[in-house]
Amino acid sequence: MQKRYLLRLKRDEFCCDHLYRVITDGSFLVYDDEKREFLVLRPYAESADQLDYCPWCASRMPASLNDAWYAAVEKSIPNFDEFSTPRAQIPLAFRSSAWWKKQKL
C-alpha cells in the first residue's frame, strides 16, 4: 500500500469528524483509496487489520473493493503478480479511487 496524499481527502468521505482527524493526522489508521479500505497498521508486521465499523460512531464502513481491484488489474495486466509486478506497470487509474468511482461501486 502506498502512502496516501492526505490533503486530497475530504471530510465528506468519512462517517464522522473523529475518524477524519485520526486518518489525516498520520496515525496508525489509514484509508486506502485504491481499494476503499480503512486499515489499522500494526507496528513490526507486514499486514494490516481492516476496520468494518468506525470505532467512534459505530457506522458500518463501505465494503472493501480489494477483490474487485485485483480482478480489474489482472484483466488489464497479463501475468499480473502482486509481489513481482512493479507498481509503475499498474495503470494509473488503478492507483487511486478513480477506477471504482468511474464504475460507481
From TrEMBL:
The UniProt record lists the DUF6980 domain at 18-102
InterPro entries named among the record's database cross-references: DUF6980 (IPR053918)
Q: What is this protein called?
A: DUF6980 domain-containing protein
